[in-house]
Amino acid sequence: MKKSILIFLIILFTAGCINETKTDEVIKFKTTDLKKAKNISEMIDEINKNPYDFLTPYDGFIYDNISTSSSDNRITVKASSKELEGDDIYLFIYENGSLILKSYTLEALPSSLKDEAVAIALSNEKVYRNAKGELTVRRILPHTAAKYYMAKELFSVTWHGDRIVSALVDVEDGIIVKTYFSE
Fold it and tell me: Mean pLDDT in the chain?
């Protein structure tokens, strides 16, 4: 029982956080479809020239600032918008001519959307009673959300205090998909 709770905790808590995934579950970008990048420097140039081929800002918004860094075969992209609170961070792996999205943290969201996701999370009485501490709202991309619910955009609403309290929210349908409460 404790093992299954621990596994559920790890899955829910890391949803929307920078989380490593299996290669067969990640998004791959074939560089040959874009350009034949011979090395990681050329791939970074390609990301900087065509960011929206690789990055997914929240619907209807664009990034005003995009910075890239690399180490070995890893490319980290940090992106922000003047119109949105928070940053989006992407971690790519470049290997064998492919760019693979390994993990991401997407916090660049409109305040009104964050408020809506929080309100939905707080509609659960247990979440409401236990929601204390620092609040994070993170967007979960459909390919990740499919592991927990269905392939659609979800939001992880989490309070980090004495206890971790988290709700995985479907804003479109106005429902809580899953909840997690640490011991």
Answer: 85
